[in-house]
C-alpha cells in the first residue's frame, strides 16, 4: 500500500480549489518501532511546516474501536489545517521538509491522507 503521495496524486489534489483552505485527515498504521519514529517526524513537521501556514489541529493515538470492521482500527490520527492546497503542495516540495519525510515512510505500513473541507455552520 502506498503511504506517500505521488506526482499524479498531487496533480489531482491541485485540480480542485487550489487556493481554498484544506484540512488533511491522516489515518496512520505503524510498523515495528513506528510510533517513536512518527513522533520524530511530527517534530520535524512542526518545524518545517511553519512557513506554509500549516497548523496541527490534532494528533492522537488510537485505541480499540467502538465500531469498526476488522482492519479498520488505526494507530494514530492526525489533522492538519493548511491555508490552501497550494500551500500543502509547496510544503511537500520544500527540500527542508523533504529531509525528514523518511521518518514518516519508515514509521508507517499503511496510511490514508484524505483532504477535507469545512462545512459552514448554519
UniProtKB/TrEMBL annotation:
Superkingdom of origin: Bacteria
All residue ranges annotated as the DUF1330 domain in the record: 35-109
Gene3D superfamilies registered for this protein in UniProt: 3.30.70.100
Pfam family, one: DUF1330
Name of protein: DUF1330 domain-containing protein
Taxonomic source organism: Pseudonocardia xishanensis
Record lineage: Bacteria, Bacillati, Actinomycetota, Actinomycetes, Pseudonocardiales
